[in-house]
Design goal:
Heterotetramer of two alpha and two beta subunits. This protein has 12 helices and 18 strands. By secondary structure, the chain is of the alpha+beta class.
């Protein structure tokens, strides 16, 4: 689950991680009122969307007066902000963060994330703050510091020093930086985060450490442990079909292609998408209904896929095990009758009760195309689109 920058900074404050003074605003009047309460100018007006690169897209601007805050608020609120992370379609800005300006001596990069290969939490840091870390990693990887922390042991003093010395933190800021990094690690673990990122982390002219930006991603699979954080979820920032799918415990990700697919099992779903591409078509989604799917879940899966106007055909690929083929077939028939499918549907089934499943589909009176195997299914659905 992603959260907005202003929400991430609220979490930072709870853990004693220093951030600039500021508040979120939804209108010109709110923004100007917040700016007046910050004790001086300049102030920063920042678009709040779930994407990085906002500054390059015109979503982060400096205001030297209250009138300018109002002008910039009018420009940013409601704009369609396009960044390298939003894709060409962009995202509408519905809220802004108004913050006190800072006197910056240096900008750093700092993040914590899970490294599956080492089964550790890795601290990544660089003196090249304020830049795209991907560009730094590809062009000058030697400028990135990596410190691996065993989660069973927790972060140690020598690891805090390794990061601080690697970033060449001024001696006057060393104690504050180490305390901040330790709190960031605690925040990461206690909230089941998959990513905590500060870009830039700044050292001010008076040697204070400050998180000028904040990004927090929380593992969605752990949200049952963090019901207090559920209120931070912004459904406006998520794909409507993905939100709808989550209501029925369906694993769905919207893609750019034209072939919708319904599969039971994540590995089989990945293989299905690969073979669709190999046949010359493009998958429109990842949809895993799971091994224990019911007829109702199958019905909702098909309904959600048909919401996507890009979908010109559907490939259903089921390996019957826990989810029997006859149960799945009943779900397809129910869904087809309720949604009124008017695009080609190719079905490939194997496994438990497959003959009964095929009989249900054959006697349904629906215009469904059966496939012998997955290769045959992919070829038929590619021909259909």
């Amino acid at each position: 689950m992603k959260v907005h920058e202003y929400q991430a900074k609220e979490i930072f404050r709870k853990y004693g991680v220093p951030v600039p003074e500021g508040k979120v605003a939804f209108s010109r009047d709110e923004a100007q009122g917040i700016a007046d309460g910050l004790g001086g100018y300049p102030v920063v007006v920042k678009a709040q969307i779930h994407a990085g690169g906002r500054g390059k897209g015109g979503g982060v601007k400096l205001a030297a007066s209250n009138d300018e805050v109002g002008t910039l608020t009018d420009e940013i609120l409601g704009m369609n902000l396009v960044t390298h992370q939003t894709g060409p379609e962009g995202k509408e800005v519905k809220k802004i963060l108004v913050e006190a300006g800072q006197k910056i001596a240096s900008e750093l990069y700092l993040s914590l994330l899970v490294d599956r290969e080492s089964a550790c939490i890795v601290i990544m840091a660089s003196r090249e703050g304020g830049m795209d870390i991907e560009a730094v990693a590809s062009k000058t990887p030697e400028k990135i510091i990596k410190v691996y922390v065993d989660p069973l042991c927790g972060i140690q003093g020598y690891q805090l020093r390794d990061v601080a010395f690697g970033l060449d933190i001024p001696s006057k800021a060393m104690k504050q930086f180490s305390a901040m990094l330790k709190q960031l690690y605690t925040l990461f673990v206690e909230n089941d985060c998959s990513l905590v990122e500060i870009n830039p982390l700044i050292i001010t002219e008076d040697d204070q450490v400050l998180a000028l930006d904040a990004k927090v991603d929380i593992d969605s699979n752990a949200m049952f442990r963090h019901k207090d954080l559920l209120s931070l979820r912004d459904l406006d920032e998520e794909d409507p079909q993905e939100v709808e799918a989550s209501k029925f415990n369906l694993n769905y990700i919207n893609l750019d292609g034209n072939v919708g697919n319904i599969v039971n099992g994540a590995g089989l779903a990945m293989a299905t998408m690969d073979i669709i591409k190999n046949a010359g078509a493009e998958p429109a989604n990842f949809m895993d209904v799971g091994g224990g799917a019911t007829a109702e879940m199958v019905e909702n899966a098909l309904r959600i896929i048909l919401m996507d106007q890009k979908v010109k055909a559907v490939l259903i690929n089921i390996f019957g095990g826990i989810l029997r083929c006859d149960v799945f077939a009943e779900g397809v028939v129910q869904a087809a009758k309720k949604t009124g499918i008017n695009i080609p549907v190719v079905v490939r089934m194997e496994g438990t009760n497959v003959e009964e499943g095929k009989r249900i589909l054959a006697e349904s009176g629906l215009n469904l195309t059966s496939a012998v195997d997955l290769k045959d299914a992919a070829a038929k659905v590619a021909a259909a689109v």
